[in-house]
Amino acid sequence: MNNSNQYQILSDYRVIRISGDDSEKFLQGQLTCDLKDANGEKVVIGGYCNVQGRLHATFYLAKINSGYLLVCPTVVAEHLTATLAKYAVFFQTSINLEESLALIAYTNNHQQEDLMQMNLTKDIASKVKVTFALGELAVAILETNHLNDLLQTKLAAYETTSTDIFALQQIRKQIPMVQVSTIETLLPHYIGLPQVGGVNFEKGCYTGQEVVARMHYRGSLKTHPSIAEIESQANLEAGTPIVNHLDKKVGELINSAVQKGSKNKLVALISLADKALQDELSVAGHPLQLLSAD
């Protein structure tokens, strides 16, 4: 098999559709990203905080026609839909967890390192609504009943992979995804959301903005995201504490995935205290080694 021709159906992710005349105004007052950056030509990474500045969710956001699509893990998407809906009643907007849209990631021979590149041109054969680049992957959002069309046409020469190539690419790019076990526990700065363009400090007020801005302008951050390798045969739960040789918590796991070509090693995005960078580290009893970012 040609390892460059692989695809992964993202069954653990869902799409939320926000539509209506007040959608931009509503979301602009809720999300960490600037809705003006989602102009139909690029995908935006963003977050949604509570009033304490801790994240309900992180996501990819795309503008399509007069509405928006948000992509995030399934259970988080359910939580995000319900939470946003509480405040949407004051605006002319609707928020729906899409049942008819599917997501698929596939290796892209024409690699685009710019995540923001987005293609809204519909493919007649596959009815693709949105595609965007994520390093060596392309990610497509399309009608579920047209997924087989895509697999039998454009991706006919591709093979499915048991490796979570989407999670691995997100970790490589240090794009943090809030999981169900970390809802309302993570601060944007500690997981690197501003570093990947997920926080706009010029857009004005949004939920949690005061806390996030204070950390940015006044705080001396002593915790940052890092990429690590973990000796483990099974994936570990997001939020699992990282400890030093004294068994003292110095960080936590953000996301992890089984390393490609290995059955006993994980690659992980972690949040780690700067003072622990030279320490002997472990997570849930498994040795952890820091890696240099690409």
Any overview of this molecule?
The protein has 294 residues and is mostly beta strands. It folds into two domains: 6-172, Gyrase A, domain 2 (2-Layer Sandwich), CATH 3.30.1360; 222-294, Elongation Factor Tu (Ef-tu), domain 3, CATH 2.40.30. The protein is built from five helices and 16 strands. The chain has a six-stranded antiparallel barrel. A five-stranded mixed beta sheet has the order 8-9-7-1-10, with helices on one face. A hairpin with a 5-residue loop joins strand 12 and strand 13. The radius of gyration is 19 Å and the shape is globular. The model is unreliable at 120-126 (pLDDT under 50).
Report the CATH architecture of the largest domain: 2-Layer Sandwich
CATH topology (fold) name of the largest domain:
Gyrase A, domain 2
Uncertain runs: 120-126
Global geometry: globular
What would CATH call the class of the largest domain?
A: Alpha Beta
CATH superfamily of the largest domain: Probable tRNA modification gtpase trme, domain 1
Q: Looking across the biggest beta sheet, what order are the strands in? A: 11-14-13-12-15-16
Distance between the termini: 26 Å
What structural class do helix, strand and pairing data support? mainly beta
Q: What percent strand?
A: 35-45%
Give the count of structural domains: 2
What Rg do the Cα atoms give?
A: 19 Å
The mean pLDDT is 90
Helix content: 10-25%
| Strand count | 16
Helix-strand pattern: EEHEEEHEEEEHEHHEEEEEE
Counting DSSP H or I runs of 4 or more residues, the number of helices is 5
- Largest sheet geometry: 6 strands, antiparallel, barrel
